[in-house]
Amino acid sequence: MSKLLVVDDEVKIREVIREYAEFNNYEVDEAADGMEAIGLCKLNEYDLIILDVMMPKLDGFSTCKELRKFKDTPVIMLSARGEEYDKLFGFELGVDDYVVKPFSPKELMARVHAVLTRKASAQPEEQDVLNFKGLSINIPARTVLVDGEKIELTPKEYDLLFYLAKNCNLALSRDKLLSDIWGYDFFGDDRTIDTHIKNLRNNLGPYRDFIVTLRGVGYKFEA
């Protein structure tokens, strides 16, 4: 049974999500703010976190940023605001999906199922290390070294780098990257790819040019 953490300062919203989640055979813990959520995540293991943006003490974006320092748990963000900036900022932090309030509890559960399914199928088959000059990608350990120094990547940035490197010298369209990394049922658009590519290049430093832009197509890894 998968275990969810629902983080929202509105009691009624937590109650509704709990009711639907338990009906779908999920175990549920609740937190009323970001600080409480971080405390629970340090004590427990969760399969997915449903996280509200606007909360007292610590907002959802700040909470996600803190969680990513020690957890790789998938996150679905809830927000009353649907602005593109908020969504892109969330995806930069490694959020797996973004749901705008008011939302359908049934749709939310469908998204929870989709994210958990992607997570279960995303385990790498190869158990090795990919080396490209001073760039080293350790697949089983999910670590990346740039000239011997470990760099910090979000889970999606790592998945994107691994996928590009595994398909070295192959042209990959934005649609294919979205489909194979985020899943065919992802509700965002191809600008999500561009945002992650930009962040990934910044993290790769001297090896940023390994990721080549193909105008009108997408990207390829060329080392």
From TrEMBL:
The organism's place on the tree of life at top rank: Bacteria
DNA-binding region(s), chain positions: 127-223
Single Gene Ontology BP annotation: regulation of DNA-templated transcription
4-aspartylphosphate modification, residue list: 52
Domain Response regulatory: 3-116
Domain (OmpR/PhoB-type): residue spans on this chain: 127-223
Record's keyword terms, sorted: DNA-binding, Phosphoprotein, Transcription, Transcription regulation, Two-component regulatory system
GO MF terms held by the record: phosphorelay response regulator activity; transcription cis-regulatory region binding
GO CC annotation: cytosol; protein-DNA complex
Pfam family for this entry, one: Trans_reg_C
Gene3D superfamilies hit by this protein: 3.40.50.2300, 6.10.250.690, Winged helix-like DNA-binding domain superfamily/Winged helix DNA-binding domain
PANTHER family found in the cross-reference section: DNA-BINDING DUAL MASTER TRANSCRIPTIONAL REGULATOR RPAA, REGULATOR OF RPOS
Function: May play the central regulatory role in sporulation. It may be an element of the effector pathway responsible for the activation of sporulation genes in response to nutritional stress. Spo0A may act in concert with spo0H (a sigma factor) to control the expression of some genes that are critical to the sporulation process.
Protein name as catalogued: Stage 0 sporulation protein A homolog
Biological classification of the source: Bacteria, Bacillati, Bacillota, Clostridia, Peptostreptococcales
